[in-house]
Amino acid sequence: TQLLEQSPQFLSIQEGENLTVYCNSSSVFSSLQWYRQEPGEGPVLLVTVVTGGEVKKLKRLTFQFGDARKDSSLHITAAQPGDTGLYLCAGYNQGGKLIFGQGTELSVKP
Amino acid sequence: DTGVSQDPRHKITKRGQNVTFRCDPISEHNRLYWYRQTLGQGPEFLTYFQNEAQLEKSRLLSDRFSAERPKGSFSTLEIQRTEQGDSAMYLCASSKGHNTEAFFGQGTRLTVV
Q: B6 CB contacts (<8 Å, ≥6 apart)?
């Protein structure tokens, strides 16, 4: 069974700090997607990483796909209160089903 | 195209009643997924379709849940004889196919009282 494990589950930091969220699996994924979700809304796609070792940047967010395509990380530089939300990683299992990690709930305090 | 659309956004129902939710995917997307999500958790897979064919249904789902996508476009999710434990956010997503980016609707928040 392919599973995605996210850590940490909760993160509370001060504005201006840096943070990293991890998404790990024992299985290989052909790609991983990162989403951000605000309360009462659906997840919004941030980025898709496809190639092992790939690094993608979205303003202050840096996404990396592990060389073996079993793990990914999201790094936020100089976090702002507007970054607060639930961050989710997701990938397609071999059966074609899109599965999600448990999520990382980020709170950035001013 | 404005993206994935879900209706209603909110639904309050009494225990034992049936409810039906609708999802309109992005028009050229063949795949459609339904998820259930509780507060602070990741979405839990319920079922998905390739065009009108239902490819997989979660074993976690009881027989009270059923989904259809009759013409390969919009989909409905019905919950019969609702229970308080069914209270959650129900999310729909669509994608062009396997291993392509999936886009979500805003969800339907169900409260069973």
A: A42, B21, B22, B23, B24, B90, B91, B92, B105, B106, B107, B108
Run of H or E residues at B24: strand B19-24
Residues constituting chain A: 110
Of A44, A45, A100, the CB nearest to B43: A100
Strands A71-76 and A19-24: antiparallel
For testing the chain A interface, which of B2, B98, B108, B110 should be mutated: the one with the most A CBs within 10 Å? B98
**DSSP state, residue B78:** E
Summarised one tens digit per residue, pLDDT across range B51-72 is: 999 998 988 777 899 999 998 8
Rounded alpha-carbon distances, angstroms, from residue B83 to B73, B92, B111? 29, 21, 10
Q: Which of B45, B99, B107 sits opposite A41 (nearest CB)?
A: B107
- To 5 degrees, how large is the angle CA B103–CA A61–CA B44? 35
pLDDT the model gives residue B97: 86
Length of chain B: 113
CA distances in angstroms from A29 to A23, A47, A75, A83, B96, listed in the order given: 12, 15, 20, 27, 18
- Taking the C-alpha atoms of residue A72 and residue A90, their distance in angstroms, rounded to an integer, is 10
* Structural tokens at position A56: 């993608």
B75, with CB counted inside 10 A (0-12, 13-18, 19+), is: buried
